[in-house]
Amino acid sequence: MTKAKISSKVVRARSLLIYELEEFIGYIRTIDPELEPDQAIVLTARVLDELPNLFQQNPTLLDRIKEVATSMKIKRPAPMPNVQ
Known about the structure:
By secondary structure, this protein is an all-alpha fold. The protein has helices at about 10-30, 35-55, 60-75.
């Protein structure tokens, strides 16, 4: 089985995601400092699982995500033209 090559952009994006998740886990522990680290991770997973429902119930949040996504797409560099 061959491994698919992962672009450096994806690697950087994953690194950012991991960093932000760890920050959020730390935030969860500020809400309840008695949580064990593994419990804070599980609670974070539950929060992530509930996010789609939260977005559906809060159109303003959903609109903000759409705005950020649109902004990211606009800033995306244009593909290089194929020169033959």
